[in-house]
Design goal:
The N terminus is likely disordered. The chain has 15 helices and no strands. It starts with 16 loop residues before the first helix and ends with a helix. The longest helix is centred in the last third of the chain and has 32 residues. Helix 3 runs antiparallel to helix 4, helix 11 packs antiparallel against helix 12 and helix 12 runs antiparallel to helix 13. It folds into two domains: about 180 residues, MFS general substrate transporter like domains (Growth Hormone, Chain: A, Up-down Bundle), CATH 1.20.1250; about 200 residues, MFS general substrate transporter like domains (Growth Hormone, Chain: A, Up-down Bundle), CATH 1.20.1250. InterPro entries: MFS, MFS_dom, MFS_trans_sf, MFS_Transporters. This is MFS transporter. One of its GO terms (molecular function) is transmembrane transporter activity.
């Protein structure tokens, strides 16, 4: 019996032009998005006195369109390659955001919002597939972490630019937001290679069918719905609690702290956990951290105490994204990475949609029953159940070392 050949030494992590381009356009995309979307409410409700419900419909339809199309965008990426879909998505979102500035009626604004959602649905999963294709498996957690940091950087700078640009008028602000996607288009056209699929699926949706029938991946995706129910509470229950404690101006420090911590700490925190813990351990621990932070928010009596809980909450959320993306890439068969990333969007779509409704309903019920801990204890319970479910599902997912060993044996 001969000994197995030693595993090859890992290559050092150095950003390629394609990786740098993907990081840069992520900041542009998130920055452009958060520049204009908060101003939609400010302009149409605050300035034009439209009903808040109508603007809520606009924003909800945009999210529904994007998340629904993301599932299919990943499948198309497996057939066409991610590059043309990302580029098309940038152009379509440019048109959608630009049109918003000229919308004078609700049907026009709805149409512009749907167009912006279509653009996002086209580039969302293909961008994750492109990141996977241009990054070695051992470097993917770090790369997805850098992508997340870039997104959070855009989330910080976008609203600040929007607040400054709104004095120029909503029309100009929306055009500047749209121009961010033009720059993203040019940058990716120059840096992202044509990534041809290694194996073209038999039909457009065959990859989605494989993902649907992959029991381990399907269970992994569905269990993560519980986490995304928790992650949306920054926009719902946490924001409402912050306003109760410190007034409407509390939203700025709330979002600034959450995104700012991710920009500063996410990469070094990921590097530390990567050296000492397995991906599955980090993911379960991060979900538990988010759950405990939400539970503690029910005990916060001052805004400073709430911000301390938000800091803990952010430490958990900044680790979940790179771990989820890494495991999705690990589970995806060759040639079906886009389909798997598209299918994984179900977690955010389902969990986010339910979370937005449940978070508000729990807060209302807590006030009605005079039991203000109700939402926070419920969210803590959801987090504990989600962590337990993840622990069980992750036992069936092979580690990176096991995957590498299988590849060496197959080779």
């Amino acid at each position: 019996m001969t000994a197995a050949p030693p595993a090859p030494a890992p290559t050092p992590f150095r950003l390629s032009a394609a990786q740098f381009g993907l990081i840069a356009v992520t900041t542009l995309m998130w920055g452009g998005f958060f520049l204009v979307i908060p101003l939609v409410t400010v302009h149409f409700v605050g300035d034009l006195k439209w009903a808040a419900a109508s603007v809520g419909l606009v924003l909800g339809l945009r999210q529904l369109t994007q998340q629904g199309l993301t599932v299919f965008g990943g499948a198309w990426a497996d057939r066409l390659g991610p590059r043309p879909l990302i580029l098309a998505g940038c152009l379509i979102r440019t048109l959608g955001f630009g049109w918003m500035g000229f919308a004078g009626s609700l049907p026009e604004l709805l149409a512009a919002s749907v167009l912006a959602g279509i653009g996002g649905g086209l580039f969302d999963a293909p961008k994750s597939a492109a990141i996977t294709a241009v990054t070695a498996p051992e470097h993917r957690p770090r790369m997805f972490s850098l992508i997340s940091i870039a997104g959070n950087l855009g989330m910080v700078t976008g609203p600040l630019l929007g607040a400054w640009l709104i004095v120029l008028g909503f029309q100009r602000a929306s055009l500047i937001a749209a121009s961010a996607y033009v720059v993203a288009f040019v940058l990716l056209a120059l840096t992202l290679p044509r990534l041809k699929p290694a194996q073209v699926p038999a039909d457009t949706f065959s990859g989605l069918k494989v993902a649907l029938h992959d029991r381990v991946f399907r269970n992994f995706t569905l269990v993560l719905c519980g986490y995304f129910l928790l992650s949306t509470q920054l926009n719902v229950a946490v924001t409402l609690r912050a306003v109760e404690l410190a007034g409407p101006g509390a939203t700025g420090p709330l979002y600034g702290l959450s995104a700012g911590l991710a920009v500063v700490l996410q990469y070094p925190l990921l590097r530390f956990t990567e050296r000492h813990l397995r991906v599955r351990t980090v993911l379960v621990g991060a979900v538990l951290t988010v759950a405990v932070a939400l539970g503690l928010m029910g005990l916060a009596q001052t805004f400073a105490q709430l911000l301390a809980c938000v800091a803990l909450y952010s430490l958990g959320t900044m680790l979940v994204f790179p771990m989820q993306q890494t495991l999705t890439a690990r589970l995806a068969p060759e040639g079906l990475v886009g389909s798997y990333f598209g299918f994984s969007a179900i977690s955010l779509g389902l969990g986010g949609a339910v979370g937005n409704f449940v978070g508000g309903a729990l807060v209302d019920a807590g006030h009605r029953l005079d039991f203000h801990l109700l939402p926070w204890l419920t969210l803590l319970l959801v987090g504990l159940v989600t962590a337990a479910g993840l622990t069980r599902v992750l036992r069936e997912i092979p580690t990176r070392e096991q995957m590498e060993a299988r590849q060496r044996q197959a080779g």
